[in-house]
Structures are given as structure tokens and as C-alpha cells.
Design a protein that fits this description.
Length: 218
């Protein structure tokens, strides 16, 4: 929650006098716990607890990468609370399609034997990928069916993203049931989309949906 996107959004919300919550999932950032003990379901429950216990009124969920998967899961669990979604390189189903299905047999053998594998990361130390994370993730897969959220959605995705192919955004757009969906592809954008011009696109999307929520009905 100390990343550039989160802090930019906090400053943006403060300037507008708009409520804003940022948090770290279990095993991430300032939160307690061992990352290797996390699963998609556990992190979804973290987000659900924030929504249920700390937030009031209609909410716009903003999720980057894995957070984009979690926001979609919450939109199905609390559709009456969610007024809109903003996804940045959203990565539903990544545990299955971007990790498990791409692993060579030797690493699969390691996972089955040791229950974990250290995945090299371009962003810092390698991440422990556990067999439990991959197997539990199958309970939360979304891209094989329609995603029954009808509210407005804005998706941002870099076409130079080396981690989550930009075609993921097209798949999400096709699966989402609502018609108020705008997908922005940034040709030279990477996975993080944290350059000034990317942050400007993000805050513009949040401002647009915020104004929709605040506008009087009719």
C-alpha cells in the first residue's frame, strides 16, 4: 500500500475530499503473516473484511494485477456495495493459466515434492509459490464463465506488459456482463503502469466513476 499507485490515489482522494482506503493483504507489505501461507481465498477474505468492516456506502474497487482478480471476486460477493471497478493489468486466473499451465515438468515435480518453488521476480527477491496457492486458486477461477457484475468498469492494461498479457483485458471485457465498460490499452505500458502518464489515466478513470456515483439519479 506504499506503492506509487496507492499513494497517488490517496493524494488524489484527499484533494477531492473523497474517502479512500488502502491496505496490504496478509503476508504483504506492512501486514503480518507469511506470504507463503497466503492463498487467493485468504486474500479475498482480507479484502472482504475491509469492505464489510471499514467501508460504508457504495464503493469503487481498484485492483492491480492480483488485486484485479480479487476486486472481481468481491463484485460477485457484494454486488449491492460495489458501484464500479477499476482494474490495472488485472490478472484473474493467473495461478492456473500464467503459472501452473506454463511450468515445466521439473518444477511441477519440485512443487509436488517440496510444496513450494521460488519463482524469480524482476521486481525484487524471488517469490515462494506454493502448491497450496495453485491448487486453492482453482476454486476462484473466473474466465471460463460470465462474470455477473453489471456496474461500470474501467480496465487499463499495458501492451508491453511482460507478466500479464494484454489479451487478458479483452477476455475480462468479454466475460463481464455489464455494458458500461471501457478498456484502455497503453501500447508502451508495462505491468506496473506507474509512470506519470499512467497514473493520470488511473486517476481520470477513478474520477469518472466517482462522479457517476455522486451524480443524482435520473
Amino acid at each position: 500500500m506504499t506503492g506509487t499507485k496507492a499513494t497517488t490515489l490517496e493524494a488524489f482522494a484527499r484533494a477531492r475530499g473523497q474517502a479512500f482506503i488502502r491496505f496490504d493483504y496478509f503476508g504483504h507489505g506492512a501486514s503480518s503473516g507469511d506470504f507463503a501461507e497466503g492463498t487467493i481465498g485468504r486474500w479475498r477474505d482480507d479484502a472482504l473484511a475491509v469492505l464489510d468492516e471499514l467501508a460504508t456506502g457504495p464503493q469503487i474497487l481498484i485492483g492491480s494485477s492480483m488485486g484485479g482478480w480479487l476486486m472481481l471476486l468481491l463484485s460477485l460477493l457484494r454486488p449491492d456495495r460495489i458501484a464500479g471497478l477499476v482494474g490495472i493489468a488485472a490478472a484473474p486466473d493467473f495461478t492456473e493459466e500464467l503459472i501452473w499451465q506454463k511450468l515445466p515438468p521439473a518444477i511441477i515435480d519440485t512443487l509436488k515434492r517440496d510444496k513450494r518453488w521460488i519463482e524469480p521476480s524482476r521486481y525484487g527477491p524471488g517469490l515462494p509459490i506454493t502448491l497450496a496457492l495453485l491448487e486453492e486458486g482453482r476454486a476462484h477461477l473466473l474466465l471460463g464463465r460470465a462474470i455477473g457484475f453489471d456496474g461500470p468498469v474501467r480496465l487499463l492494461h499495458g501492451m508491453a506488459d511482460p507478466d500479464v498479457p494484454w489479451q487478458w483485458a479483452l477476455r475480462i471485457a468479454e466475460k463481464l456482463r455489464g455494458s458500461d465498460l471501457v478498456l484502455s490499452l497503453i501500447k508502451d505500458g508495462d505491468h506496473r503502469l506507474s509512470r506519470p502518464e499512467d497514473l493520470a489515466r488511473l486517476t481520470a478513470a477513478v474520477a469518472e466513476l466517482s462522479d457517476k456515483v455522486a451524480a443524482p439519479a435520473g
